[in-house]
Amino acid sequence: MSCETIQPLITGYLDGELSADQQTELDAHLAQCEQCRRDLEELRQLKDNLAGMSFREPGDEELDRYWQGVYNRLERGTGWVLLSIGAICLLSFGAFMLVERVVRDPDVAWIVKIGVTALIIGAVVLFVSLLRERLAVRKTDRYAKEIKR
Amino acid sequence: MSTTHPQESLLHRSRHGDADAFGALVRQHAGRAIGTASLMLGSYDDGLDASQEAFARAWRRIDSFRGTGSFYAWFAAILRNVCIDRIRRRKRRTHASLDEVHPIADHADGPAALADRSEQAERLWRAICELSPPHRDIIVLSHFQELSYRQIAELLEIPIGTVMSRLHAARKALRDKLAGGQA
């Protein structure tokens, strides 16, 4: 096998992810390829260096502020949902009242009646379309995806 | 920070709406989450903000965590998607090239998130930030999110063999950057 084909197995070997067959192929290749042996050693060194690179653990005060930031986002999220529900209810009621009054009023010109009705229907269509799109996105939402350990 | 609560108990309570339990989970994983998001986004401030958003999303979706695997592996997928969303938004706003939307972390940002502030750690940090987005992504998933090949394959929706070859290419690119003194 060529070096190009066998090279990714070096990384798999360092991570303990090779099958028995792949391990045999790699061993056979390494026995007769100095360049790949050199790569193996260099990549092993790199992996060790990366393993020694850890992130700083925040202190207790920092963690308190951090969690407060997360919690604030949760609160704001709930606030936005309630605000949206309230706005939808009020706007729907207002639109219904407006259409009813305008359509029933004999003094209002027919062009105004058509304009107001079209405006309301247009708004409803746009809202339903956006809602449908959001629901479709939610069905395939990758955030909900759980990967197994 | 050490914890006195077993993770399973915290998860169980979190699923039942216990914010304090979820807060304890956040505290356990905050350091790693901030660090990896900082690497993905090239800035500590952005990493801090993105990781908080990811935890907030995780809390809202905690019911979808079936509990069959590790909480952090599940959370890592959310964190990665939050970071990718932000990178895409930057791209749309600035019309920059893909490389330009991954600014190199400056000295104030990078080492601040690292426990080891040695010169070697700084060089590594900067070299990782200079990698192409796919290479940096897979290095972060493998080394800093500590996901297995199978987990990475599921997350990226690619075969395990591609995970191995992409990670190999990423490590070689990182080695070459360090050897070439570009980092």
TrEMBL record, chain A:
Coiled coil: 26-53
Keywords noted in UniProt: Coiled coil, Membrane, Transmembrane, Transmembrane helix
A Pfam family annotated for this UniProt entry: zf-HC2
Official protein name in the record: Putative zinc-finger domain-containing protein
Keyword field contains Cytoplasm: no
InterPro entries cross-referenced by the UniProt entry: Anti_sigma_zinc_sf, Znf_put
Cytoplasm listed as a keyword: no
Start and end residues of each Putative zinc-finger domain: 3-37
Native source species: marine sediment metagenome
Transmembrane residue ranges: 80-98, 110-131
